[in-house]
Design goal:
The protein has 237 residues and is mostly helical. It has ten helices and no strands.
């Protein structure tokens, strides 16, 4: 029993230490190289353990590189947790965001904002139409009051194809600059990360992770199948 208990703890500690080493390395490398010792010294100075010497190192570490790293960690946590939910619900380790039309719906929302210049942010419309795609998929998958997994997957393929076709229209009618913005948005990037974005995104990710953690037992039960989940009191619809 103790070995089973220690294994997750050891894994978590090892992952945390690996993340720490990778973070220090990422703060060191780049067009402007900063030795790892100076990176650690800058952090020690920031918390008041040693005297700060300021300079360009602090600017590069705390205002440029650290924001990108923290945002990358938050985005990675969000993607990994959402992937776990997908795998648990569909009982398949190979599922991906296109399975419910989320990615296609979000791309359509972004294209709508860019091509027609709506007075809304690209992220907002992408989020809204991602939810719309999921809602359409779920509604289409209902059969006699139930949503079988295979029907949900097929509905996701249909809705995803629909939004992909609509997005292709934006690629056809958009200007060169609009297409550039769309491609850049789809590929993504962290080079414009700021602390204001980190302060906005990090709480959202933490709340989402907390909710998933709260229902982790349900996800584990869902992997056993719908009948077993119902028998254990887990709603599968």
């Amino acid at each position: 029993m103790k070995s089973h208990t220690r294994t997750p703890v050891i894994g978590i500690v090892a992952a945390a230490l690996s993340l720490l080493f990778i973070t220090v390395g990422a703060l060191s490398v780049g067009a402007y190289h900063i030795p790892p010792a100076e990176v650690l010294y800058a952090f020690a100075a920031r918390v008041g353990l040693v005297q700060s010497i300021g300079g360009i190192n602090d600017t590069v570490i705390f205002d440029i590189r650290l924001t990108r790293i923290v945002l990358a960690i938050a985005v990675g946590a969000a993607l990994s947790c959402s992937g776990v939910v997908y795998q648990g619900v569909f009982r398949n380790p190979l599922v991906e965001p296109y399975i419910l039309g989320v990615s296609s719906g979000a791309a359509f929302g972004a294209g709508l904002a860019v091509v027609f210049r709506f007075p809304f942010s690209i992220q907002l419309l992408a989020f809204v139409f991602g939810l719309v795609a999921v809602g359409m998929t779920y509604r289409l998958a209902i059969v006699r009051g139930q949503t079988p997994t295979i029907t949900l997957v097929l509905s996701g393929v249909i809705i995803g194809s629909l939004f992909s076709a609509l997005f292709a229209i934006f690629q056809y009618i958009g200007t060169t600059e609009q297409l550039r913005r769309l491609v850049f948005w789809i590929l993504g990037g962290l080079h414009r990360a700021t602390w204001s974005e980190v302060r906005f995104i990090a709480p959202v990710v933490l709340v989402g992770v907390a909710i998933i953690w709260r229902y982790a037992w349900w996800l584990n039960v869902l992997t056993l199948g719908d009948d077993e989940a119902r028998a254990l009191g887990v709603p599968v619809e």
